[in-house]
Amino acid sequence: MSRIGRAALATLEDRIDAIESRAKISELRSAYARFASSGNAYGVASLFTEDCVFDGPMGAGKGRGIINGNKALGDFLAPQIGKIGAVLPLISNEIIKVDGDTAKGWCLMQTPMAPGFGALVCEYFDECVRIDGKWFFAKRTMFLFQPVYEERPANYAQMEPTGR
């Protein structure tokens, strides 16, 4: 090892891993959008761990709820995903904080829909985990902005990540 010591190399390896992990988590979000746009509810669910938690709106007028497990998530999404017509989820404003084989993140999603269905705008707080080298959603919390604005919880400002 010439000018780079072992400690610096380990730090460099960690930094490269974090950069690659952020790219893979961004791709995970893009795969979510692609499966949703193609109406593949079980494809969406396959991006989650078996014991995942989805916390979000349960449908028009049904309020918020929690879905446990990727099988239950696929079953929940299957009748929903085709009901709203063609969708094109656009992911933006990503923040991803990697800590080894876990990560937390936040992003916005805007989804133009088929004529007559309006648009969906929401934000996601994500907790991800790397299993056998592949990233999955372990928990995904969704808040709507449009078509219905959901009141944020009292601890909203403290929810991770802040990007700092």
UniProtKB/TrEMBL annotation:
InterPro entries referenced in this protein's UniProt entry, alphabetically: NTF2-like_dom_sf, SnoaL-like
Domain called SnoaL-like: residue spans: 18-141
Origin: domain of life: Bacteria
Organism: Sphingomonas montanisoli
Descriptive protein name: Nuclear transport factor 2 family protein
